[in-house]
Design a protein that fits this description.
alpha/beta, 2 domains, 12 strands
Length: about 240
């Protein structure tokens, strides 16, 4: 009899817990959202405004405070955000305090293609439109089209990851023979990089040449620097 009573108490207690949990969940779900928190996870300056993200989050509603928590389908909201061409990834969630949160990762442009109109190549080797909010300081790329982005993307990615090259290279031209020519900031000579192969080795060779020539105050004496010959740097004087 004692065991039966303990079992009954356990069932009643369990039922009460389930009821309270369901009641709390239903009551919480019927409440409206309170505010929006938007967080950009990447290091780029915003290519999309917080106001635009805000509108995508509360589409078809007057304000966030008019949205019931249980009426918002987070996957649909994430899908709307991902349709924006500036956004690479998005995570949408609701906090316990009723705020709607969005973590945004933007696409990362590596080069700006001279076209009509211009557009970017991102770090995945895909076409990315220009932003009306912010202009990325990336090399101007010529001689490419969407069909041959993959030929320049590895080099653009390497330039972006190397502080010296990133601050030095302002232009990249893909020639018909597949060679790549670089244009530098503050210097008139061109750099014939050749095929986008052995990139790290060519960077190292060029930086060693640049450092030595700058020390000798002879940078202005050259019109072409050729990096195609293995560990050699062949420089042509004016």
């Amino acid at each position: 009899m004692k065991r039966s009573w303990e079992y009954i108490k356990f069932v009643l207690l369990f039922g009460l817990v389930v009821f309270l949990f369901s009641f709390t969940k239903q009551r919480n779900g019927s409440r409206n959202l309170t505010k929006i928190n938007i967080e950009f996870l990447d290091e780029n300056s915003p290519f999309i405004t917080r106001n635009t993200v805000n509108k995508l989050l509360i589409q078809n509603y007057d304000s966030v405070t008019s949205i019931r928590k249980d009426k918002l389908v987070l996957k649909e909201v994430e899908s709307r955000l991902l349709e924006n061409e500036m956004i690479l990834d998005a995570e949408v969630y609701i906090n316990l305090n009723g705020s709607l949160g969005a973590k945004i990762t933007q696409r990362n442009p590596l080069g700006r293609v001279a076209a009509s109109p211009d557009y970017y190549i991102d770090d995945r080797g895909e076409k990315m439109p220009l932003s009306v909010v912010y202009t990325a300081r990336v090399p101007l790329v010529t001689g490419v089209s969407e069909s041959n982005f993959k030929k320049v993307t590895p080099l653009l990615r390497a330039i972006d990851e190397d502080p010296f090259m990133k601050s030095s290279v302002i232009g990249l031209e893909l020639q018909q023979n597949g060679n790549i020519e670089l244009r530098l900031r503050k210097h008139n000579f061109k750099v014939l990089f050749g095929k986008p192969e052995a990139i790290a080795n060519k960077f190292q060779n060029f930086k060693a040449f640049y450092k030595k020539t700058k020390q000798d105050n002879k940078l202005s004496s050259y019109k072409l620097v050729n990096l195609q010959f293995g560990d050699q740097v062949v420089a042509t004087k004016i």
